[in-house]
Structures are given as C-alpha cells and as structure tokens.
Known about the structure:
six-stranded parallel β-sheet, 2 domains, alpha/beta, globular
Amino acid sequence: xxxxxxxxxxxxxxxxxxxxTGKQHGSIPHTAPEHVAEILRRxxxxxPRIAGTSPATREAWLAAIAEALxxxxxxxxxxxxxxxxxxxxxxxxELAKCVASTVFYGAVAAEGSYLDASTExxxxxxxxxxxxxxxxxxxxxxxxxxxxxxxxxxHDVASALAAGCPVIVKAHPAHPRLSVRLAELVSDALDxxxxxxxxxxxxxxxxxxxxxxxxxxxxxxxxxxSQGGGMALVARAAARGVPVxxxxxxxxxxxxxxxxxxxxxxxxxxxxGSFTLGAGQFCTKPGLLFAPAGAGIFDAVxxxxxxxxxxxxxxxxxxxxxxxxxxxxARAAGVxxxxxxxxxxxxxATDTPVELTDGYGVDPQVFLVRLEDFHPGSRLxxxxxxxxxxxxxxxxxxxxxxxxxxxxxSLVASVFTGGPGDPESAEVxxxxxxxxxxxxxxxxPTGVATSWSMQHGGPWPSTSRSDATSxxxxxxxxxxxxxxxxxxxxxxxxxxxxxxxxxxxxxxxDGRLTLPTG
Length: 518
C-alpha cells in the first residue's frame, strides 16, 4: 500500500491555519510530479486485482477502515478542530457518520445488486450475459466543509472502494495536516486487511490534483465543492472524455404554505438552526424561505439571530467571500435603513476586503426580499456560502411558485405544510421535483441519511451529473459501467454469474429475479 504522497516534497506547501485565530500551525509539502506518476502506476496495476475481489472481501476492507477511524477519534477530532474551527461536537458527529457510512457502503457491495448481473437466452443456442464492472482508478477531490464526510475518507472514497476501484485523493488545502493523518490511517487499515498495493493514496497540492485529472490512468473524478472549482474540473476532464461527478450546490429553497404558517415561531427557530448549522457551510443549507405575508416569520427569524454566536468560517478566502456576498445581497435586496445598520456591522455595506486579524469569524445575516427581485442576473439567485439566508413574503402561492421556477436548480428543497389535507402542498412538491434532487416535507434539508433511498444530487448547476448521487447506495453506480458477453463459455463469465453464485448476490436469470438461497 502506498503511504501518503505528502512524504515527498514538491515545489510548494499547503499551510495549515486555525480559523479561530488565523494563525498558521505548520504546513504540508506538495507531492512531486514523479511521485504522483508512481502513485498512478500503482493504482493502475492494482485495478484488475481489486476488481476481481469479491464484494464481501471489499466489505472487510471498509470495515477495517471504519475500525481505524473509530480507534483514533480523539486525535482526529482535535486535529480537525485546529484546522476547521467546527467544534468538537459537530466533528465527533461527522466522524461517527463517516464510520457508519463506510460500513454501509461495504454492505451495499456485499449485497450485490449494484452489479446488475443477468443472463438469458436470446434465441436458438445464443445467450447474452451482462453485468457491471469497476471503471478503474478514481480521483477524489474532497470538500473543505466536511473533513470526514467528503474527502480523504467518506462517501466518495468508500463508495469507490466498495465498487472495486482504486482511489487517489487530493488533500484539501483547508485541512492538510488532517488529510495526511487520515490517509495514513486508511492506508494502514487497508494494508492490514490485505488490500493490494496501490488501492489507495493521497496527493497534496494544486498541481498534483491537475496531474491526476490529466492522467490517462484516471477513469472518473468525484468532487465536492464550489461551482467554479467543479466546472473547471469538468472542463479539464472533458478533453479525455472522463466523467466528473461534481456536487456543487446552489440556493436550496424552503416553501411554507399558508396553513403551515400558523407555526411561525417554530418555523423561524428551525430555519435559523438549519441555515446557521456549521456556520452555514453545508451544501444543503436552506438559503431562501418563501412565507405567507403577515405571518411574522421574518421578524421572528431576525429576533432568533440575535441569539446566534459569531462563528469562524473555514478559511480566510471563504470569510472574505462571505462578506463580499453579503454586500451583493444587500444591494440586490434594497435593504432598509434599519437592516443596513446590521449589514454594516457584518461588513456587508462595502466591497472593500476586511482584514482578518482575529480569525475568520462572521455574524449571521438575513435579508427580506421581494418576488419581483428574482429576475435573470439577480445576485439573489446565486449561493452565498456562509450563515446568510433570504426570506421572501408572498401574497399568493401562485406568484411564489412562479418565482421558484426562476431559481437555479438545487440539491434539495423543504416544504412545510399544514398536514395531509393542506390544499397547496401537492402542487408545491410537484413543481419542486422538477428542480431538485430531494424534497423534504416538514423537515429541514440539512440532514442527509446514508441509506438505500437517498438521492444527494440534483440538476445542473447543483451537480455536473443529474443522474448521480454522492450519498446512499446509488453512489456506487458512479464507479461501474455495464458490459455484456454474447454466447459466453463459463470461463468468460465472472463469479457474479457463475452457476453456483459464489458471491451470493441477486441476479436476473432469463428475465426473472433470482435471489441467493438461504
């Protein structure tokens, strides 16, 4: 197993900063090009061996990774806290979910339906057999805001390994020391579990990441992050026809029906808790709430914000981008004098960069906007990363639904209803399903379950592939492709289609779904 590539110095370093103070604590050297090339060769060499292992074997590899992460919980949470400022409780919860999801993806592989194995007669003596095979080495670009969930370990890495692909991860510059330590633990766990050399490795540095995207050995790219970064990778990989599964996020809407507005206090409290969760740095953050005029939700939200503490954002760049974003939102919203005073306090009234002398702390903000403000080119249609949200009060639901249609498609939407008999809810849900990957009814969108039914994706520009999900059982589908053999001898068929079914997976034989016995 190749250890972290960060051990080899390249031409620069990724410095490590504490968002709570802005102070630097060490750095990690970039991976030299020749070492990246060696990692790629090892991954390509390992690909056939990994693809030939049984799903149950890969399940054991992932269980070993989960065990290693759990055993080092205190160390990892402390290190992540130093580089993200997200707080121990949030980080412990995220690490626990990472451990659980890693085990889950192993179980999905072992269950076997992702292989879509089938065989049938097609007339006379002819047969046709089809199944899914792993695509080969996968490059993963992790997120700044989920150091455990999407990065050196987490959903993309675990689902690619479960599908039978070697994985090479690029360390995120927001948490380089944590990235290296996580890679050491994952590499050691895979070594002990007997995974082939080349199954997993880490590279550090922007140029090393580009080298991965350009490399002939890489067959797919998974990315979680900004729209700009994701689309740049899509464009770069397009030269080789390599798919990029980029989860980027946009403005996730919330719609409160007339009947649901009776609980304005509860909705206001829930909205504030959701859009400020993790300092508003979730891809599922609700960024815009439509509420009936006169319900008092905007005033209730603004009162709730007075109780929310100032929080650090992940990086200096994100903090400056947040303040610039607030300025644009304030202008687009046409804030009143009273609201402008609050905007000045948060730096929203100026485009001049604010010096970050005491860490990357920012204050949460909310703006009241009008339906007519949602016109093409409006800043209100674009995401502002951080703890800010918009509230739009409507006089009639039809006008609000028309405004919803002008939003960019997004990952998720929430709809709050008055109950099963709510006359508005069915149309709202139907309209939103054309624009999002998931609709949460009477629930906030920030919770994402790792499950068989989860869809964590959406139409462009929230993702680069609307047919994919980066969370849930369907995440494995990104890293396999279908093949078929006509008139196959038994020697031509994989274990997935052997008559004895040694992998004990569901298969379709002559059109009939056949489950493993016992």
